[in-house]
Amino acid sequence: MAALGWLTPRRRSATARSVLAGEAAAEAARKSAQENAQEQEASPASAQAPGEPEFPVAGDERAAAFFDLDNTVMQGAAIFHFGRGLYKRHFFGKRELARFAWQQAWFRLAGIEDPEHMQDARDSVLSIVKGHRVSELMTIGEEIYDEYMAERIWPGTRALAQAHLDAGQKVWLVTAAPVETATIIARRLGLTGALGTVAESVGGVYTGKLVGELLHGPAKAEAVRALAAAEGLDLARCAAYSDSANDIPMLSLVGHPYAINPDGRLRKHAREHGWRLRDYRTGRKAAKIGIPAAAGLGALAGGAAAGIALHRRRR
């Protein structure tokens, strides 16, 4: 499957579909945040790490923080964990599982987002959930978070998010994952809300289509811009955090961009532009400096096979 042109680094400006996706994500995020605010309980304050600058600024209500999800807040990709949970519940068969396992193995080893994998995962999830009720998938999403996602949250990134909350600022996830999944994760982490890909639903039932496009790359920047306008935020006083060069458009919008567990392209860009870097990974040195092609492919194939075998043993 060929990658969509707007997902490639050569993309120059947001398309109308990216703008639509961003605005839909912002609207959904604000609605979910209002609901979350009624349920959240105060979280204990976390100490600021030694050497951290005096940031965020306490009491600055026109500042907020925007966090990418995959490999920034959580190890791996949420959409692949979600697919794993749906397989366990017999939403699809072993062929789709093998594809999810391969994509997740690639993402965890290479540490970068592959546009074809993202597109393939999007199409797979849309076809899988078509005809199901939104409420059903929300309930299942809660279960999948407990089963596969909760233990994969990066403590370091979680502490950064908490620092913004402790300063009285709103904190939003910004992700290509379905907005329902992203909202669950945000609520579980005590965050304000989430901007995510909005799947069309009619009468509470998924149609198998998207509103706009996948919230990825330039569409994330459009979502942040739309939310900032609606919330009265000053982007120059806001912060954004991501691991991927695909999110440079979003990171470039704010006055305080952070590269978290960065891929090679983002690391280089961050150093050239004086952006702050944080790396909370362990055991990732080989992937970061490069692995011979044969060894890398072998590891990917082994990871995929291991994932499938693990599911078979558990059944």
UniProtKB/TrEMBL annotation:
CDD domains: HAD_PGPPase (cd02612). It comes from the Bacteria. The keyword Transmembrane helix applies. Residues 25-55 are annotated as: Disordered. Keywords: Hydrolase, Membrane, Transmembrane, Transmembrane helix. The keyword Transmembrane helix applies. The chain crosses the membrane at residues 289-310. InterPro entries: HAD-like_SerB, HAD-like_sf, HAD_hydro_SerB1, HAD_sf. Residues 34-54 have a biased composition (Low complexity). GO terms for molecular function: hydrolase activity. NCBIfam families: HAD-SF-IB, HAD-SF-IB-hyp1. Belongs to the HAD-like hydrolase superfamily. SerB family. This is HAD-IB family hydrolase. It comes from Streptomyces luteosporeus. The lineage of its organism: Bacteria, Bacillati, Actinomycetota, Actinomycetes, Kitasatosporales.
